[in-house]
Amino acid sequence: PTTTTATTNTLEIKQGADKVSIQIKNVTKFIYILGGVASGFEVADKEAKTGKLSRTVVDKNNQDKQTVITSIRNLKAGLAALEVEFRTKPSLKNYLFQIQGITDLTTQSEDLASASRFTESGKPLLLVIEKLADTLAAMPSASSLSL
After folding, report:
1. Rounded to whole angstroms, how far apart are CA atoms 95 and 92?
2. pTM tops 0.90, yes or no
3. Cα atoms in the 13 Å half-sphere on the side-chain side of 27
4. To the nearest 5 percent, what fractions of the chain are helix, strand and coil?
5. What is the C-alpha to C-alpha distance for residues 145 and 95, in angstroms, rounded to an integer?
């Protein structure tokens, strides 16, 4: 039974580390894309206020903003699931301190985006990446885990 528990714990830690790694990639890619579209939103918003854009372009810009907000919500769902997993699996609880708060940070990002503060909405996501990286650094490396 002890060997089975150790094997299960080792497997859960390995899977947890893999999931953290995936989320680092997801959030990093999102921030990269957000940087480009956020500046585009700002330019379009300024031009819309001066009447330089057609209604069609303004509507498309607003639709794109909603797509970004939906994408942040999707990121948040994945991050929340990961945080819950670290909170509920005994083998991952040792790393909860590092990962705790990623859902709240993603909510901050969503709130900023919902307020059309898209450039600022990336800042909490940078903190999410830091927390995920700290979590990964605290976990044993795959090569030190024996299954």
Report:
1. 6
2. no
3. 29
4. 85, 0, 15
5. 16
